[in-house]
Design a protein that fits this description.
The chain starts with a helix and ends in a 5-residue tail after the last strand. The radius of gyration is 34 Å and the shape is elongated. The longest helix has 23 residues. With 150 residues, the chain is an alpha+beta fold. It contains three helices and six strands.
Length: 150
């Protein structure tokens, strides 16, 4: 089976040169000419890859989210009249929470807003928001720990 041009190039680079000044000296293989004689490049690349994998794993395992330690979930919401809307939601916080409640109309324009403070722990909260016209939905826009900065 004939050899490929790539194999011929590697074979010719591994063979000693015919017109070399010192005919007894062997030429280094093609890969050693390019990357050096020792495994230094391989060791450095492997150490870098292991360090990146450990760092990535640590970052993923320690990620807690951007919301801090307050979690909320809407249970129900209603807009019984044009002047008010009600919402019931569950909030869980370590040090108490301040939640912003928004009422929106059918075009998602804010028609009412209220800030509610809750005690620490897992709490079920029901509140009413005064609106300027009929609301289509009520949402918990955000919840944050009490005393935290915006």
């Amino acid at each position: 089976m004939p050899t490929t041009p790539e194999e011929d190039a590697v074979k010719s680079a591994d063979e000693p040169a015919a017109d070399a000044a010192v005919p007894d000296a062997e030429t280094a293989p093609a890969l050693r000419k390019r990357h050096g004689n020792g495994p230094v490049f391989f060791v450095i690349a492997t150490a870098f890859a292991v360090l990146c994998a450990v760092g990535w794993g640590y970052a993923v395992m320690s990620y807690t989210g951007l919301g801090g330690g307050v979690y909320h979930q809407v249970v129900s919401s209603a807009a019984p009249s044009a002047s008010e809307a009600t919402i019931t939601y569950e909030v869980n916080s370590r040090d108490g929470a301040v939640c912003l409640i928004r009422a929106l109309d059918e075009r998602l324009v804010e028609v009412g807003q209220r800030t509610v403070t809750t005690e620490p722990g897992n709490r079920m909260v029901s509140t009413t928001v005064e609106t300027i016209r009929q609301a289509a939905t009520v949402e918990v826009a955000s919840c944050r720990e009490q005393g935290s900065q915006d």
